[in-house]
C-alpha cells in the first residue's frame, strides 16, 4: 500500500499548478469571515496588492452620497461593489498616478492615501484629490458565498 502511494504521489503532485502559474494569475479565494467591520486586509493576486475592505455603514453612506459631478473620474459606488454586498470593497492597491502603494484608512476621505505624491481616494477607491488621473482599479472577483470571494 505504501509503495502504491509513493508511486501515485508524483503523478498527483504534477497536476497541481506550479508557482509560476499561480503567480501568472490563477484565481485566489479569500475567506472574509475574519475581517471585522472597519478593517481591511491586503492579499496578492498576479503579483499585485489587493485591498479588501469591510466598510462601515458610515463609509458606505458617505461613498453613496458623493455627487458624481465632484469626482475627477465619476463612477457611482454601486459600480465599484457587488450588489447586495455593499460592505465589501475590493480594489487593486496601486495608485493610478505612478504606481505607488497607497495606505488604507488614511487621508481626508477615510479611504486610501498615496504617500508618494499625495493622491487621496475615498472609501470607494475613487480619486478625490491629488495627481492620480483615475480611480483605483477593481479586479475581477465574485462572491462564492456570503463569506468567500474568488479574485481572478
Give me the secondary-structure category: alpha+beta
Give the CATH class. Mainly Beta
End-to-end Cα distance, whole Å, is 39 Å
Order of helices and strands: HHEEEHEEEEEEE
Number of domains: 1
Helix content: 10-25%
CATH superfamily: Rieske [2Fe-2S] iron-sulphur domain
* Major β-sheet annotation: 4 strands, antiparallel
- Widest beta sheet: strand line-up: 5-6-7-8
Question: Using only CA atoms, what is the Rg?
Answer: 19 Å
Overall morphology: globular
The fold-level CATH name is Rieske Iron-sulfur Protein
Give the CATH architecture: 3-layer Sandwich
Q: What is the beta-strand fraction?
A: 25-35%
Question: Which stretches are poorly predicted, pLDDT < 50 over at least 5 residues?
Answer: none
Number of strands: 10
Average pLDDT: 89
Instruction: Give the count of helical stretches.
Output: 3
Amino acid at each position: 500500500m505504501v509503495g502504491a502511494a509513493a508511486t501515485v504521489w508524483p503523478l498527483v503532485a504534477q497536476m497541481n499548478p506550479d508557482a509560476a502559474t499561480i503567480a501568472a494569475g490563477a484565481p485566489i479565494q479569500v475567506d472574509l469571515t475574519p475581517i471585522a467591520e472597519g478593517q481591511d486586509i491586503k492579499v496578492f493576486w498576479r503579483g499585485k496588492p489587493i485591498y479588501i475592505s469591510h466598510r462601515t455603514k458610515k463609509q458606505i453612506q458617505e461613498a453613496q452620497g458623493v455627487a458624481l459631478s465632484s469626482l475627477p473620474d465619476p463612477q457611482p459606488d454601486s459600480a465599484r461593489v457587488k450588489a447586495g454586498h455593499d460592505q465589501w470593497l475590493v480594489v487593486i492597491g496601486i495608485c493610478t498616478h505612478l504606481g505607488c502603494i497607497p495606505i488604507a484608512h488614511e487621508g481626508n476621505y477615510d479611504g486610501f492615501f498615496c504617500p508618494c505624491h499625495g493622491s487621496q481616494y475615498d472609501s470607494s477607491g475613487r480619486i478625490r484629490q491629488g495627481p492620480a488621473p483615475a480611480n483605483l482599479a477593481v479586479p475581477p472577483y465574485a462572491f462564492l458565498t456570503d463569506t468567500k470571494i474568488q479574485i481572478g
